[in-house]
Amino acid sequence: MSGLRIGEVAERTGTNTPTIRYYEEIGLLPRPDRQEGNQRRYGDDAVKRLTFIRRCRDFGFSIEQVRTLTSLVQDRSRSCFEARDLAQQHLTEVRVKLKELRELEKSIAGFVESCNVACAGGPGPDCVILEDLGSMKPIAAERRRA
Length: 146
What we know:
InterPro entries: DNA-bd_dom_put_sf (IPR009061), MerR-type_HTH_dom (IPR000551), MerR_fam (IPR047057). This is HTH-type transcriptional regulator hmrR. Keywords: DNA-binding, Transcription, Transcription regulation. One of its GO terms (molecular function) is DNA binding. It holds the Pfam family MerR_1. The chain is mainly alpha-helical. It folds into 2 domains: 1-61, Multidrug-efflux Transporter Regulator, Chain: A, Domain 2, CATH 1.10.1660.10; 99-146. 65% of the residues lie in helices and 4% in strands. Strands 1-2 form a two-stranded antiparallel sheet. A hairpin with a 3-residue loop joins strand 1 (33-35) and strand 2. The relative contact order is 0.08. The mean pLDDT is 91.
């Protein structure tokens, strides 16, 4: 019997077995040969591809972006510009998310600040953080900017 079992591939790549099965199901990872007992058996190419997929996902690329990147790996007729453009698009998306996270950080800092000023140490139900979270009015950080 040759090849690696799914658990061995999972261990080598840091990917859990349900995720490996999912990647097979959606066509990101080719379905492996099966041997006695209908067990999956993977070769080195599958380990390399799964490592590539895992790294793409670790960098936050979507499944469809990973699909595009894996197809680029296999097609010498396609240009590196495609990978660059996809990475640039992803970088733009990451920068938008970072901006949103900075705004979220300011809002949460406003929660903490308003609690320190208004009610820290008082009864939990009277906490301004809870009031702000349950309110339709702008939160403290937004009120300060207005």
